[in-house]
Specification:
single chain, 4 helices, 2% strand
């Protein structure tokens, strides 16, 4: 007999990863009203729900964010930035100039798109810090680890890998339930 726990209980049956040893499902940490409260992570979130929660939890650095909440917002933001950049480039191409070193300076048509891109960046900076911290909490890591982004190249790669990890039950210690 070994002391190792390889995912089976004493009778040889499998132990569910988030369930109780007797096979009964673990009740959710919030009421049985069906809707997931805003303070709890929304696992299996759709794109619309993820973006809504992203803005509702604008500067909430406590709690957790599921992978779906995080990645839907990252995808939506990336698509929006790419679309605005392409349209802005196309609008700024007429009247653009090229410097001696080959740098392209956009024409005046890019200015409104540049302003919108800047507003979008500065308007989502704090919420992206917030959702990044909450995503690290879901993996049971400190939100301060987000500062590793300050290390060029390697920091962003490390945060990318950590954001792909699955949820850890101990991450619930970061939750702050509200009534």
């Amino acid at each position: 007999m070994t002391d190792r726990n390889d995912g089976a209980d004493q009778q040889g049956g499998a132990v569910p990863p988030y369930g109780q040893p007797d096979g009964q499902p673990t009740p959710p940490p919030y009421g049985s009203g069906g809707a997931v409260p805003l303070w709890a992570p929304l696992y299996g979130a759709g794109p619309v729900d993820a973006v809504k929660r992203f803005f509702k939890k604008y500067a909430d650095f406590s709690g957790r964010a599921s992978r779906s909440e995080y990645w839907w917002v990252v995808l939506a933001n990336g698509v929006l930035f790419l679309a605005l950049s392409i349209i802005g480039f196309a609008a700024g191409y007429p009247g653009s100039t090229t410097d001696v070193d080959g740098t392209l300076n956009p024409g005046p048509g890019f200015i409104p798109f540049g302003i919108v891109l800047a507003l979008l960046f500065f308007g989502t900076f704090v919420p992206f810090l917030s959702i990044g911290v909450r995503r690290l909490h879901d993996v049971d890591l400190s939100g301060w680890l987000l500062l590793i982004n300050l290390v060029p190249y390697l920091g962003g790669f490390v945060i990318f890998i950590l954001s792909l990890l699955g949820p850890k039950p101990r991450g619930a210690r970061f939750d702050r339930p509200t009534s």
